[in-house]
Amino acid sequence: MEIITDIEVVTGLNTVATIGSFDGVHKGHVAMINEARSIAQQRGLSFTVITFAQHPRLLFKKVDKPFLLTSFKEKMALLSNCGVERCVLLPFDKAMATLSAREFMEQVLCKKLGVKVLAVGYDHRFGCPKHNESFLDYVRYGKEVGIDVVRMHPYSANGENISSSAVRRMLDVGDVVSVNRLLGRNYSVCGNVVHGEAIGRSIGFPTANIALCEPMQMLPLDGVYECAVEINGERYVGVMNIGHKPTLGADERTVEVFIINFSGDIYDCNVRVQFVRRLREEIRFASLEELRRQIEKDVSDVLKNNNMVL
After folding, report:
1. pTM here?
2. Number of domains in the chain
3. Quick one: which of 136, 194, 212, 271 has the fewest CB in 10 Å?
4. What is the pLDDT of residue 131?
C-alpha cells in the first residue's frame, strides 16, 4: 500500500476518495471501502483512503481513558489487507481543524489531492462543526468546488449499524464475542512481556504480564477471558486476566496471560493477544489455593473449547 504523508508535494491524484478515522477497521469500514472502490472502478478513476496519523480526539478533547480500537500500525496493516492501494495521512492539526467543510473540500481535497468524487459514510461529518450542516450541504459545496459527493449505504448486523462506537459499547460490557462479529476478526492488543510479582508461578500457573504498545487502546471490561496468543509467529491458547487481582489487592490495572502448553523465557518479547470469549468476572478468593482451583477450572474450560489436553 502506498502511504502519502506529505500532501504539499502531491500532484492531483484524479481520484475517488473516502475519508475517516477508520478506528477498528470493522466490517462497516470494509464495506464502505469496497463500495467506494467500486465507484472508482465504474468511473475509471483511482481510489484513495484518507485518514489521520493521530485520532482527532487525541488532539482536541481531554481523554481520560483509553478509547482506540487499533494502534496506528495495526490500522495501516488492516487497511492494506482490505486491498487499499493508496492511503493519504492528513497532518491533522489545529490549523486544519479550523477549516470549514467547504474550505476543507476546496483547499485540501480538491486543490491538493485532486479528489473528483468524495464517497462519505451515511453519518460522517468533517470540517469545523457547523450548526445543522448536513450531507446536502456537502453535495452543494462539492458542486461549487468541483467534487461529486456521494453517500454510501450503512452496513448493519442484526439490525444494528456497525460503528466504532458500537464496538466500544460492547467492549465496555466485556461482550468480546459480539465485538469479534462486528470486526470480522478477533479483537486484539499488542504488548511487551514485562516482569510481574510471580504469584502465578508460585501456584503453578506462570503468567506473562503484558504492557500494551498503545496505551490508549481499549481493553474489555475487567474479567477473565479465553484468548489466543501469538509469539514469534506461533499461536497458543490461554487464559487472560484483566483487572486489579482482588485476591492480591493490586493497585494498578494489569493484563496477564497464562499461556497453555508453553514454556520458555519471553520477557521483553512482543506478543499479540486475541480475545475469544469472556469466561467470568474477577473474583476475590479467600486464599491462593482457592484461586489456584478456579484457574484450573478456567484452563479446563479453554482446553475443552479447543479440543485440547494439558
Report:
1. 0.91
2. 2
3. 136
4. 66
- The grid coordinates listed for 246 are 482482588
Residue 73 within any structural domain of the chain: yes
Distance of CA 197 to the CA centre of its chain: 30
| Contact in structure between 101 and 126 (CB atoms under 8 Å) | yes
196: phi then psi, degrees, rounded to nearest 5: -120, -155
Residues 198 and 140 in one domain: no
The CATH number of the domain holding residue 154 is 3.40.50.620
| pLDDT 10s digits, 211-251 | 999 999 999 999 999 999 999 999 999 999 999 876 666 66
Q: Which domain holds residue 249?
A: 186-305
pLDDT under 50: residue ranges of the chain: none
* 298 in Cβ contact with 279 (< 8 Å): yes
Q: Is residue 181 part of a domain?
A: no
Closest CA relative to residue 144, chosen from 109, 111, 106, 117:
106
What's the pLDDT at 265? 87
pLDDT recorded at residue 68: 96
Q: How far is CA 303 from CA 176, 212, 226, 262, 310, in A?
A: 19, 26, 10, 13, 7
Are residues 7 and 151 both part of a single domain?
yes
Which of 164, 190, 193 has its CA nearest to residue 179? 164
Instruction: Supply the DSSP symbol for 109.
Output: I
Q: Is residue 150 part of a domain?
A: yes
Phi, psi of 135 (to 5 degrees): -55, -40
Rounded distance, CA 295 to CA 260, Å? 12
**Residue 14 and residue 137 in one domain:** yes
Give the integer Cα–Cα distance in Å for 225 and 120. 37
